[in-house]
Design goal:
It contains three helices and 13 strands; from the N terminus they run αβββββαβββββαβββ. It has 198 residues and is of the alpha+beta class. The strands form two sheets. It has a nine-stranded antiparallel beta sheet with strand order 4-1-2-3-13-12-11-5-9. The protein has a four-stranded antiparallel beta sheet with strand order 8-7-6-10. A hairpin with a 2-residue loop joins strand 1 and strand 2. The termini are far apart.
């Protein structure tokens, strides 16, 4: 079963953070023609990536076939999103160095705001109070304006992975500030869990 090298790298990047106490999450799961990986904070689904009859798990650290009970992850991906935006991939690529520079620092979060004009990304340091921010223009907007918070590392890794694929735009869907949001390009869905800020 040969996989696109960008996809394989993306899947391995997620499972490498999984603790040895949760060996099942070191696996890629194949079911209903899709490939899944999760570390319980983020989830990747690669649609129509394998024949539909395949239902198995592969440990991505050694490519063995362990006998594990993979969690039911497809139900975590909402069927519909109440707020949907589309952003041009080239704009995201241009913004990536700034987004990556927001990663360092303990106790930092990213605040995401979406409206009909732009996607705003702000790094807020809970220790120093120093903020960095940027805006990316929105090509399409449907729904209500929304604000949520997430991990700067996870957002940076997700966007870095998703701009590699062929579609010229990224689709991003949101529901509520505490429900997972999804980034889609081509046949790849990247789900991120927001963080609660008090």
């Amino acid at each position: 079963m040969k996989m696109n090298s960008d996809v394989e790298r993306m899947l391995k990047n997620v499972v490498k953070s999984v603790s040895d106490t949760r060996p099942v999450l070191k696996c890629a799961h194949f079911e209903n023609g899709n490939t899944y990986v999760t570390d319980s904070h983020r989830l990747i689904r690669v649609r129509n990536s394998v024949p539909k009859g395949i239902n198995l798990d592969i440990d991505l650290s050694d490519f063995s076939f362990p006998d594990v009970n993979y969690p039911s992850v497809d139900r975590l991906i909402a069927k519909k999103f109440s707020t949907n935006i589309r952003v041009t991939k080239s704009f995201v690529k241009t913004a990536l160095p700034v987004i990556k520079s927001m990663r360092p620092g303990y106790n930092a979060i990213i605040e995401i705001k979406v409206n009909e004009d732009h996607l705003s990304i702000t790094r807020k340091s809970l220790d120093t109070g120093i903020n960095q921010s940027l805006e990316i223009g929105v090509d399409y907007f449907e729904g209500e304006p929304l604000t949520l918070s997430c991990s700067p590392n996870y957002l940076s890794e997700a966007l870095t992975s998703m701009v590699q694929f062929e579609d010229p735009s990224l689709q991003i869907g949101f529901n509520t500030p505490l429900q997972p949001f999804i980034i889609t390009n081509s046949n790849v869905d990247y789900l991120l869990t927001p963080v609660r800020v008090f």
